[in-house]
Design brief:
Shape: elongated
Distance between the termini: 49 Å
Strand content: 5-15%
Order of helices and strands: HEEHHHEEEH
Radius of gyration: 34 Å
Number of helices: 5
Largest sheet: 3 strands, antiparallel
Strand order of the largest sheet: 3-4-5
Number of strands: 5
Structural class: mainly alpha
């Protein structure tokens, strides 16, 4: 009866410390199972699962080389062909855009520009991709116009050249002369096929340049500023509400 019972907070000698005592490793909130992983740096280098701008730059380079080679082959058919009818210039411009895109990859491309050089290179790549898109559209228009004319031409060989005319009843109708051509089948057949190939190549190349412009815009204004900042803002608001 005279003994005093120990209080609830006291512990007897030799008893282990309470389990709810916080250790040094328990400081800070614990992550749940559904917490997002820290992969911002990896996501910054990829877009739709593809490393940017390697895929687009390689496509631009391959298509640019193809357009340039076909353009020079077309120029070798006749010496009187205009520059607009042999769009090797479109392929050269697209190749320059592709080289810039490959150089951007070598300088550790990031969505968030941390230096003026990165911002200038991304802006220059966007502008040149838009220029490549415009040039490819012009090349497609010129090739389609010449292809439509060749479909209506009536050609004949005369004086080491191929002379073609549009079907018309007027005696003074315009005559198109292709010099250094001994056989008109190289114009109505081979050159016509090259025009069709140029239309397809430049159309695909223009779509790739358009996709490059879209990805640059998406990385600059949608993924980083709209996506990450809005998500971080909503996450901080949710934490404040929980506290």
């Amino acid at each position: 009866m005279g003994r005093e019972r120990p209080g609830r907070g006291a512990r007897s000698q030799g008893e282990p410390p309470a389990a709810d005592a916080a250790g040094p490793d328990d400081m800070g909130p614990k992550r749940g199972a559904g917490a997002p992983k820290e992969s911002g740096e990896e996501e910054a280098r990829t877009c739709c699962g593809c490393r940017f701008p390697l895929l687009l730059a390689l496509l631009q380079l391959a298509l640019g080389i193809a357009v340039t080679v076909v353009g020079f082959l077309m120029a070798g058919i006749s010496s009187s062909l205009l520059v607009r009818d042999t769009p090797f210039w479109a392929g050269i411009i697209v190749c320059l855009v592709a080289y810039l895109g490959l150089f951007m990859l070598c300088v550790s491309y990031q969505v968030d520009e941390r230096t003026c050089i990165q911002f200038a290179m991304k802006l220059l790549y966007f502008v040149l991709s838009a220029l490549g898109l415009t040039v490819c559209v012009l090349a497609v228009a010129f090739a389609a116009h010449h292809y439509a004319q060749l479909a209506q031409f009536t050609c004949g060989t005369a004086f080491d050249s191929c002379q073609c005319r549009l079907p018309s009843s007027e005696p003074l109708s315009r005559t198109f002369v292709y010099r250094d051509v001994t056989d008109c089948t190289s114009i109505t057949g081979t050159f016509k096929l090259f025009l069709l190939i140029q239309m397809i190549l430049n159309l695909v190349c223009g779509l790739v340049c358009l996709l490059a412009c879209f990805v640059m815009w998406k990385h600059r204004y949608q993924v980083f500023y709209v996506g990450v900042r809005m998500c971080s803002g909503t996450a901080s608001e949710g934490q404040q509400q929980k506290v």
